[in-house]
Specification:
The chain is 7% helix and 7% strand. It contains one helix and two strands, in the order αββ.
Length: 88
């Protein structure tokens, strides 16, 4: 929509995914990898985090970035979820 001034309103900045979000809970997402439930996610390794996941679309060195599993929102680069896949 264009305003009366002829400008488009600025898009809202993406927000971080909350661990209490239903999708996050389904995937076991945590904002810090070391918080992953080791009992439930036996394949989790301390070296795994969102920034080294094949799905992570953030830039190197950024604190957060987009992930297609959480469309329109950001995940913590230090986070983890059960969909983690090794980046090529």
């Amino acid at each position: 929509m264009i305003s009366a001034t002829g400008r488009r309103p600025a898009a809202a900045a993406p927000t971080l995914v909350s661990p209490s979000d239903p999708q996050a809970q389904t995937l076991g997402y945590v904002p810090v990898s070391s918080q992953a439930d080791a009992t439930k996610y036996k394949n989790h390794a301390a070296s795994q985090n969102c920034s080294n996941c094949a799905l992570y679309a953030g830039k190197a060195g950024e604190a957060s970035g987009p992930c297609p599993l959480f469309a329109g929102r950001l995940v913590s680069a230090k986070g983890w979820c059960s969909a983690w896949a090794k980046k090529a």
